[in-house]
Amino acid sequence: MSLVIALKQISESVRTRVGGKAHALSRMAASGLHVPDAFSITTDAYERYVDATGLRERILLELHRKDFKDMRWEEIWDAALRIRNMFLKTAVPKELSGILKEAIESFFSESSVVVRSSAPGEDSAKASFAGLHESYVNVRGADRVLEHVQKVWASLWSDAALLYRQELGLDVEKSSMAVLVQEIVAGERSGVVFGKNPNDPSQAVIEAVYGLNQGLVDGAVEPDRWLLDRESGRVITHTAGRRDKLGVPSQDGVRFDQLDEGRSRRNPLSEDEIGLVFALAREAEDLFGTPQDVEWTFLGEVLYALQARPITKPSSRSLEDERPWYLSLRRGFENLKSLRRKIEDELIPAMVEESSRLARQDLSALSDAALADEIARREAIHDKWVKVYWRDFIPFAHGTRLFGQVYNDTVLPADPYEFVDLLGDTEMVSVSRNRNLEDMAVMVRENPGLRDLLDQKRFSALDEGFLKKLDDFVERFEDLSCGTNQCFQGRETIVQVVLEMASGAPREREGRLKETASLRRAFLSHFQGAEREEAEELLDLARTSYRLRDDDNIYLGKIEGQLTAAVQEGRRRLRGKFSSVEDFSAKDVVQALRNPAYVPPLREAPERKEAGFEVKPRQLVGQPAGPGVSKGMARVILEPEDLLDFKSGEILVCDALDPNMTFVVPLASGIIERRGGMLIHGAIIAREYGLPCVTGIPDATVLIRTGDIITLDGYLGIAVIERRGEI
Amino acid sequence: MDDDLKLKRTLEDLLQSQKLAVLATHKAGRPYTSLVAFASTEDLKQLIFATTRSTRKYANLIQDPRVALLIDNRSNQDSDIHAAAAVTATGEADEVPVAERKGLEHIYLAKHPHLKDFVSSPSCALIRIKANTYYLVRKFQHVLELHVKP
Predict the structure, then answer these.
(1) What is the CATH number of domain B2-142?
(2) Which of B4, B135, B140 sits opposite A613 (nearest CB)?
């Protein structure tokens, strides 16, 4: 068993221990191609690390909390983040780190290297995916290199790798990771050549940029592109790139500089050089027997091959496969900044305008046919905004994650979600709404006379101060809660919530601001100069992203509320005709309004078989999403009207906590959500109020019933059902 | 419900795949555990094991029939924490009456044929536990209760 193998010593027999990438480079070197000097840290080193530190079982425990098929992307991201933090926080045992550092020093002493993943199986012909595991360019010194080796090890379990686990052949029980430590070749021109165009088998493709090809690989720099005839190597077309930036090695990593005028006017490759790069692709294909995708760079006149892997056909992408969309969410900083401007300056104002325009319309004045048209129109409007939400808002929410990763890499916190606390004091719409409700509750608590008047609904007798607050609230947050079936509007609903709030003890919100300020200082103290400015900018972006994660739902909720209002008007008109009108979908309502003879289809109940057991949950496992322990009665929210029964001290159990439901959160002693994730609304609002929260319990609203007595452990992510309720 | 049927199958798989279980009895409030070779009836409502009448476990369960039985599929490796499943059955134990002995003994010996001589001995009692509740634990701390319907 050898932990380290030099590139020259790699043979077929160690292929599965050095990974496909290292193996391919060793063959290219042996055949006389220029390849940077390198050595492999074999899978034996990975195995020794995870066994000696107990990480192996910790990873398995994390990945077995829940079946993959039941996990949402956000939960997979969360699991990957927690695993990555385990690697960052778990030192390499002394003996192993001694061996690895000695190898790094004897191969490269103090010169810069590239630390590349080389997972066994990753580059096999069956499955070739770029970018599912990490690689780091320009790392110097044994300690820093070893840190990056740990990050590459961790990327065996990256969110992308977990999403493509089947195609990758990732086996949570067996998979392992090798690392290639490669001398950096700081080429002046770099790129990628595809021996065969995946979209046209008669062609080859060359892409080239000035500087390192890091910019090309992660999309920061747009390349020049040549399509070539695969047989003759003749250039068919050439498309120039933007040629505005180039990647250069900086102190630690890669920096993007402005490209000077002279070079921005010149093609990065001459005709002869295009021929050389094409020849490289052919040689690699001859060597491996299948068309290759080769990363290359020119250092002076010498053409180096940096890595090669087989080209696979883009997997026949079914429409249901949304993973490419998910991976497209990993946007760069620049992209997120422009998205932010679009959202703040265009989209949100347009949403606000849309919902108030709809609100001004008098639905009761419409004929039945016109109302049906209006419902259909509002459905289309709502659909349009839902699409915008997926296209722009969700990717923007990814800014929070980008920051989270930077924060964790920099600060190495014990809690991988500490960064959320740094984002939390931004004023979310739902929090300010709840504060207004709490203000009114304080007035009621202090004034028993006021309580009596409200109990008796004698609004005309209310004093002006309270009435003004109430009406301001009604005006500002006209729809307290909107669901798919109805909205609660007007004074009475709000008064009911205020009275319930006033019946409990006033809730102190934690002294969050101070904590946030010190976290912020500690984070920024790791950066100097231009890097510090960038860190501040990233933090600011993340805070906006975090705040909008909440607000965008509220604005979308308002538009949904207007759709619901129209559907409700339709239901009201049909009530005399159908007893089941409350179960009608919007489509049923439209049909019934248009066609007096319409009868909605019957929905059959599924047949049930008897198992001979009555099943009760005792202890359910989810994700810990808000620390703390509380005990209380469960209130399961299936319909928006269930919220009106919410009592102080109860534990809120729901499928997905919608920002429009959060007005009861100040009353709750804990939150359980079926939908999983750390950055979903329920988790955010729970952290904001310091409530224990567990998310991602499958079937939570089915297994738990209103009235059950629950102990919620927000530290470990467990809900214990102590006693079944009688309700 | 279909999910309940799936759970029943999980329980069935666990009970059938395991040969041994840990029996808990007590004497004057002091707990006592024993390893027993067990079998289960098809409806999972009864669990059977054999013991001679001179054992502590026999004396204890005659005194107080309330017992528990732990069945699990651990392999005594670290991986058990995420991979093992365990079930605790609680119920009332008694010696199988003569009228029912033949049927239950058949089930028991089908699973443990090598215990034929032992079970046939006049000094050996066949014990059945009428299960009230199964507490099924998976994924380290996911716990469901299956209450046997009368």
Answers:
(1) 2.30.110.10
(2) B4
